[in-house]
UniProtKB/TrEMBL annotation:
Name recorded for this polypeptide: Deoxyadenosine kinase
A molecular function (GO) term: deoxynucleoside kinase activity
Residues that bind ATP: G6, M7, I8, G9, I10, G11, K12, T13, S14, R145, I146, F147, K148, R149
Keywords attached to this entry: ATP-binding, Kinase, Nucleotide-binding, Transferase
Active-site residue numbers: D82
Domain Deoxynucleoside kinase residues, every copy: 2-211
Source organism, top-level taxon: Bacteria
UniProt-listed Gene3D superfamilies: P-loop containing nucleotide triphosphate hydrolases
Protein family membership: Belongs to the DCK/DGK family.
InterPro entries: DCK/DGK, Deoxyribonucleoside_kinase, DNK_dom, P-loop_NTPase
Keyword ATP-binding part of the UniProt annotation: yes
GO cellular component terms, semicolon-separated: cytoplasm
Binding site residues for substrate: E30, Y42, Q59, R83, D88, E154
Gene from which the chain derives: dukA
Amino acid sequence: MIVVSGMIGIGKTSVAQILGDGLDSKVYYEHVSENPILPLFYKADQQEINEKRYPFLLQLYFLRTRFQSIKQAYKDDDAILDRSIYEDWYFTKINRDLGNINDMEFSVYEGLLEEMMKEIDGLPYKKAPDLNVYLRGSFETVMDRIFKRGRDFEQDEELVEYYRKLWEGYDDWLENYYSASDTLIVDMDKTDVVHNPQDAEALVEQVKDLLQAKNKI
């Protein structure tokens, strides 16, 4: 099992699809289009956030759907996760740091996550990813790809500082909080798997080599 991680808009879904095709693996995509809370979260002003608690509700929604996906993926011989439960804690922490999630909500979230991870550890099949493919890019690359993706609710200029806050701490999350598997870091400033077939092929081969070294394929 492979998890694909990285900043909003950096290209996780495209990379997951390419790896799924190249490794003949099922891809579990992030729940976005059917997520009823995500547009509300992006469009809410601070008063609505304080009243409706959209950030907390959003992270609970992602926690539930991520837990569902990771249990299904662990049953497959081969699977790719477009983001995973391991990364959601970081988004919750950032929203806590920004004051969008309060300390009590953060404590409730961490308690739920801890119990879910205990459940995962007790599963009778694979218990951790074989590889994390981490997509790293400059803030300029992130913003350019968010703009080109064109989701209306992501385009508000007032979201720029939120994106910057997430981006600034992502490497720290990887280096100090993620320990579930080995990590392959992909420089997305120099890699375009969508428009350059050679980049896509090279990434698939690199992942294959790493998995073969681990005797996973």
